[in-house]
Amino acid sequence: MAVLVGKRAPSFKAIAVVDGQFEEEFSLDRYLGKKHVIFFFYPADFSSLCPTEILAFQDRLADFESRGVAIVGCSTDTHYAHLAWLHTPRAIGGIEGTTYPLVADDTKTIASNYDVLGGHYDYNEAGEMTFIGSPQAYRGLFLIDKDGIVRHQVVNDRALARNIDEALRMVEAFQYFEENGEICPTT
């Protein structure tokens, strides 16, 4: 796995669903110089575990925004799947009410560039390149600063959910360092 900490976050332009609308050339560059970003990957729309994280980020969105942090999600599904899931009520497994951007990475290039795409390419007996495994994203989370540099990353297997409080703690720790120039103790 690539370690992106200390490096510029891989740039991309992709279709995203933002406030219930398709945005054709969504990019994290919109936040440069303005906000920190929590950019997280999840495996698939309409799965059983993913809505718990997506909704937990939504439920804590004001906590992140009050600290100048944008939340952006991404999976290897299409923007049509994102929109359908956003219109599905929470009571039946949907993520209705989610307002932060969801990026569609159906080409799988964003997940690949962030090194969170499961599976790999190999050659079969006929010498043809084929994909081995499941081409879905692992549960990657990246804290990106206002200059576009990755400051924190964590990647979990698909079956292991993340703790939203820990993501917020990492934001606070990094901002403490930015403001004080001192190493942040464990809190």
Written account of the structure:
It contains five helices and nine strands. The longest helix has 17 residues. The protein starts with 13 loop residues before the first strand and ends in a 7-residue tail after the last helix. 24% of the residues lie in helices and 26% in strands. It has a domain of 128 residues: Glutaredoxin, CATH 3.40.30. The mean pLDDT is 91. With 187 residues, the protein is of the alpha+beta class. Strands 2-1-5-4-3-8-9 form a seven-stranded mixed β-sheet.
What is the secondary structure topology, with strand pairs?
Blueprint lengths: L13 E5 L2 E6 L9 E6 L8 H10 L1 H5 L3 E7 L3 H8 L15 E3 L4 H5 L6 E4 L5 E4 L6 E6 L5 E7 L7 H17 L7
Parallel strand pairs: 3-4, 4-5
Antiparallel strand pairs: 1-2, 1-5, 3-8, 6-7, 8-9
Quick structural overview:
The protein is α+β, with helices and mostly antiparallel strands and 187 residues long.
Q: What percent strand?
A: 25-35%
Shape: globular
**Order of secondary-structure elements:** EEEHHEHEHEEEEH
Mean pLDDT: 91
| Beginning-to-end CA distance, first to last residue | 28 Å
CATH class of one domain: Alpha Beta
- The Cα radius of gyration reads 17 Å
Tell me the name of the CATH homologous superfamily of one domain.
Answer: Glutaredoxin
Strand arrangement within the widest β-sheet reads 2-1-5-4-3-8-9
> What share of residues is helical?
10-25%
Unreliable stretches (pLDDT < 50, length at least 5) are none
Structural class: alpha+beta
Total count of helical runs of at least 4 residues: 5
β-strand number = 9
Say what the CATH topology of one domain is: Glutaredoxin
Q: What's the architecture of one domain, going by CATH? A: 3-Layer(aba) Sandwich
The major β-sheet equals: 7 strands, mixed
